[in-house]
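Reopening: structure tokens for the fe (iii) ion complex, inputs below.
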Amino acid sequence: MSILIINIKELIQVRDQNTLKVSGKDMQHLPTIKNAFLLIKNGEISDFGRMESCKNMVADKTIDATDKLVLPTWCDSHTHIVFAGNREQEFVDRINGLSYTEIANRGGGILNSAKTLQNTSEDDLYNQSAQRVKNIIKLGTGALEIKSGYGLTLESELKMLRIIKRITEHFPIKIKATFLGAHAFPEAYLNNKKGYIDLIINEMLPKIGKENLADFIDVFCEKGYFSLEDTETILSAGKQFGLIPKIHVNQFNAFGGVAMGVKHNALSVDHLEELTQEDINVLIGSETMPVALPSCSFFLSIPYTPARRIINSGLPLALATDYNPGSTPSGNMNFVVSTACIKMKMTPEEAINAATLNGAYAMGISEEYGSITKGKKANLIITKPIPSYNYLPYSFGENNIETVIIKGTIIS
Ligand code: NIG
Ligand code: FE
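Re-run output (same inputs, fresh job):
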């Protein structure tokens, strides 16, 4: 089926095939075409340009986008969307004065979610997760990375990864799976950390490799979680099974995790709320994408990733949600884009680049997703009538999306 979108007020994020990420000053540039058309064929972007040049075009369906903008769907490169239940009690505990770390030290936090997940059936967990995926597609997300890491046993980590696979098979959006067995030390291993790392390396990874259940390997490299040395051991083991590193670093403490990620050619280093000049220096000249998660900073009231320092140093930056029950119970990329502008002083151009093309790069899919490019997948947002793309971050909390198209199919 072919779809012709006509009279587009402004077509946003128009790129050639070779642009796979944007860095530094280039992030300030968001190429657009005003008064445009776009033609979709076989689920791909087949043609686009100025309205004058689409005179004799015909398609099975025509959409009139007068007064509306068209942009690529969001690419959310960091989520933990497969989880069971919620942690609303911890939310209230934090309002009453406990910190995220204090709650974790009492057996709350990740271990709390792991306990709930271990006691949730595979079907129930699938249904809870699939509902969240449905909701975020309506919010304009067309590519999604999903992590394991609330299993923390062989059986439950595999359960999570199989559910991610099931989601991949059921939904038309692009999904990448990440093995995050090294998210926290389970209770049974609190005094035997080496034992848990051995379990990850000797039991979990071989099964995951055999069943082809993950694309990436992640580690929560943080004080009280996994040390630099642990991180190196686990990333090296993951690479033996073809898993590409993509890690949690510098959320609360900066102690060399970024350099460790770069040393292992991590596709991305995520969080970076704490960032030293050494971290920036080591990223310069690397192929690793820094990823900021502003709705996590918002929800936990922790510092925001210093986007201006990162971009002004010539580096690229991607934005993602971190959707998870503890630090970010929201998968709304529109809110992420707004928050990046409001709190991190990114311009709308930078934030949209970070949430589309650079997000796609951070999950290794920017050859097919993240921009309006001939031959890329037709994953598109058609907005409601709005004055300009600045209005997207400006009108925070408002839903400006009218239609979402995934691989050429209109999502109702
Ligand atoms: O990215 N920082 C580690 N992991 C998640 C939060 C996990 C949780 O609290 O459940 C994050 O913020
Ligand atoms: Fe995370």
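Residues 109-110, 113, 220, 248, 251, 296, 322, 324-327 surround N-(iminomethyl)-L-glutamic acid (ligand 1) (CB under 6 Å). DSSP finds 15 helices and 16 strands in the chain. Marking as resolved unless the reporter disagrees.
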